[in-house]
Specification:
By secondary structure, the protein is mostly helical. The protein folds into two domains: 26-58; 60-114. Helices cover 62% and strands 0% of the residues. The chain has five helices and no strands. It has helices at residues 14-19, 32-54, 60-86, 91-98, 102-108. The chain starts with 13 loop residues before the first helix and ends in a 6-residue tail after the last helix.
């Protein structure tokens, strides 16, 4: 079992905690259905927030929260790509999942020079 990686914001990150229990290179961890359920819930919450803005509800606090969600999303991607590489996925496969080229993956998530 690997240690949990710290998040850039220093807050607890449930993804990091979950990934700490996943053996690199295996399909252990969350089943795809459970991941889909979590992602579906996140999408529903984001759509609800968008509806509130469309209905005229808006303030700087809500905008701060959206920025924090964005920051957490970026941190998640920064953790996911190296973990996928460790599990044996190549940059082409990762790029296909993200809808970008393998070159874009290589540029955004450079490999360590170790």
């Amino acid at each position: 079992m690997s240690a949990a990686l710290p998040t850039p914001t220093g807050r607890h990150d449930s993804y990091t905690a979950a990934m700490a229990n996943v053996d690199s290179g295996s399909n252990a961890g969350w089943p795809q259905r459970e991941v889909g359920d979590v992602v579906g819930g996140i999408r529903r919450m984001l759509r609800a927030l968008a509806r509130r803005f469309a209905e005229g509800y808006a303030d700087t606090y809500a905008l701060e929260q959206i920025r924090e969600i964005h920051d957490e999303y970026l941190a998640l991607m920064d953790e996911a790509v190296p973990r996928l590489r460790e599990a044996g996925y190549n940059d082409r496969e990762i790029g296909e999942a993200l809808g970008v080229t393998s070159q874009a993956v290589q540029k955004r998530w450079r490999r360590d020079a170790t």
